[in-house]
Amino acid sequence: MGYDAGKRLKGRKIHALVDTEGLPMKVVVHSAGMQDRDGAGLVLDRIRQRFPWLELIWADGGYNARQVDAAVAKVPTLRMEIVKRSDDVKGSVVLPRRWVVERTFSWFGRNRRLAKDFENLAETLAAFVAIASIQIAIRRLARS
Predict the structure, then answer these.
(1) Which phi and psi (to 5°) does residue 54 adopt?
(2) Residue 97: which of 13, 7, 37, 17 has the closest Cα?
(3) Of the candidates 127, 128, 117, which has an alpha carbon nearest to the alpha carbon of residue 32?
(4) Longest C-alpha distance within the chain, in Å?
(5) E-only strand ranges, 1-144
(6) Rounded to an integer, what distance in angstroms lies between the CA atom of residue 85 and that of residue 61?
(7) Per-residue pLDDT tens for 3-32?
């Protein structure tokens, strides 16, 4: 099954910047028709003022593109490392640092409204992701 540019692609993509514990720092929601490399630029543009101390971002291979490199270059103190899968390993392998974001998406999936794409507007989905992020942070604080 391929994607025809003449058809409207339904769905949403969520790009999340999380800390090393998996707590969401910034989440951006957009249509599924946008490539990961373009979505990364949206996230990076929105974190410059809020997290000036941020120095390193780990990302998967979908973000290995010149658009992402250009967005990272706008912040002189920021650098991005792509977590690459080894070519000699066969089957499913847990990549270092990659599981942190996947775990955060799993936490989002615990919320009934985020388990499936029920929302018509990206803004509504973003609001429910924000609520889920607050819930994750509150649970973490309650444990300590």
Answers:
(1) -65, 130
(2) 17
(3) 117
(4) 52
(5) 12-18, 24-31, 56-59, 79-82
(6) 8
(7) 333 334 467 888 888 988 888 888 888 888
The model's pTM is 0.75
What is the crossing angle of helices 98-109 and 122-143, to 10°? 100
Under DSSP, the state recorded for 120 is S
Q: What is the dihedral of CA 51, 60, 136, 119, to 10 degrees?
A: 100
Between strands 24-31 and 12-18, the pairing is antiparallel
Amino acid letter, 106: S
CA distances (Å), origin 37, targets 66, 106, 119: 8, 22, 24
The two structure tokens encoding residue 88: 């000699």
Handedness of CA 63, 69, 71, 74 (dihedral sign): positive
Backbone angles phi, psi at 33, to 5 degrees: -75, -15
